[in-house]
Design brief:
Largest sheet: 7 strands, parallel
Helix content: 25-40%
Shape: globular
Number of strands: 13
Strand content: 15-25%
Radius of gyration: 20 Å
Strand order of the largest sheet: 3-2-1-4-5-6-7
Length: about 375
């Protein structure tokens, strides 16, 4: 099967795409990975080079959530259509929200990792202002997609609330290869990772409580947004944007992972931390409750007193801390990359072959959906 897949190198979509491509390797696939939004880094290019079944093509075309993207998205449409003509894929897998409504020759699957309207609602608690065209373009694209996939039921409900119903939709949780993560000797510090410029991640809340938390708080992540805006977080130990391998070392040593997010449709960094046996302190939002259930401690995103008290309670109670870490690690096992790839493989073939698909003729594994 030949797949034309889009991705962006800016955030968690890249990690998702790399995990999915790697986990699809045992299947008979060839992936042309087309990037939008920014040029991949040298490290990211090496990740692709390590996968023999994946070929990388890059562009600087803007993504739909960026400022004034529409001319650039027209350029992206022409570029993607030229790639389709060149590759003649069996399927297009878009990890951005527009372009599914163009006259493609192959079926289109759209994975909705997030969206501006649900982000805005979560961060500002008001309807988005000035995003009317975005709403129209995304609505038309999602309605045209042969299948829309979200990583959580919470994200699917958000899409339906903001863009209406979709003909076909499915929840496939994100997954990671657990072999990439391990626990080392745990040290007395709190760790967090995320885009500092993204108010949805709410990393700034950790800076507000840092002086009152008994352990140091270490924060990793990009401080400068694609439009050049830089966020400074005082009061914490900021270690910058780190490679995947370096991040894994921080997770391995950290005792607590904190992400008091206002908006997080799935949360790959929390999964990475849980696989590294960190206790989780997360924002009390619907999607994170769905993913982690009773395996995390939750705090209202804007309640810094609760954040401070929860962190200090875990620090002061080593037995409780150990139990929380064990619960998170056990829960994390359900979100592995092999299961994610198997479910995408099933979804791909349902679109390519439809009712004629015979599971006996193709490697195919079924896993039940994660439910709230």
């Amino acid at each position: 099967m030949k797949i034309l897949m889009t991705a962006d190198p800016i955030g968690g979509v890249w990690r998702y795409a790399m995990e999915l491509c790697a986990a699809l390797q045992p299947y008979a696939v060839k992936v042309l990975l087309a990037t939008l939004g920014a040029e991949p880094s040298a490290t990211q290019r090496k990740e692709v080079d390590a996968l023999d079944h994946v070929e990388l093509r890059t562009s600087r075309c803007r993504l739909e959530w960026m400022d004034s993207p529409w001319d650039s998205l027209d350029e992206a449409a022409d570029w993607l259509r030229a790639l389709e003509q060149e590759l003649e894929p069996d399927l297009l897998h878009f990890n951005h929200l527009v372009h599914a409504d163009l006259p493609w020759s192959a079926p289109v699957l759209v994975t909705a990792h997030s969206c501006v309207l649900s982000w805005w609602s979560a961060v500002y608690d008001t309807p988005a202002v000035g995003w009317e065209r975005y709403r129209e373009e995304v609505t038309r694209s999602l309605e045209a997609a042969h299948l829309v996939v979200t990583p959580t039921h919470a994200m699917l409900r958000c899409l339906r609330r903001h863009y209406g119903g979709m003909l076909r939709a499915e929840v496939i949780p994100n997954g990671l290869d657990p072999r990439r993560f391990r626990a080392a000797t745990k040290e007395p510090f709190v760790f967090s990772a995320g885009r500092l410029w993204d108010s949805g991640k709410n990393v700034a809340a950790l800076a507000r409580v840092a002086d009152e938390v008994k352990w140091p708080i270490v924060v990793a992540g990009a401080a400068t947004s694609p439009d050049g805006r830089t966020e400074e977080v005082a009061g914490v130990q900021y270690v910058g944007a780190l490679s995947r391998e370096t991040l894994a070392h921080w997770y391995a040593r950290a005792s607590i992972y904190a992400l008091p997010a206002r908006y997080e449709p799935f949360g790959l960094t929390a999964l990475e931390a849980a696989l590294s046996e960190c206790a989780l302190v997360l924002g009390d939002i619907e999607s994170l409750r769905e993913v982690w259930g009773d395996a995390a401690c939750y705090v209202p995103p804007d309640d810094t007193d609760a954040l401070r008290d929860t962190l200090n309670h875990l620090i002061a109670n080593p037995d409780k801390l150990a139990v929380c870490a064990a619960l998170a690690h056990a829960r994390a096992q359900r979100y592995d990359a092999e299961q994610m790839a198997a479910r995408y493989w099933n979804a791909y073939w349902s679109l390519v072959d439809g009712d004629s698909f015979d599971p006996k003729e193709r490697p195919c594994i079924s896993y039940s959906s994660t439910t709230p």
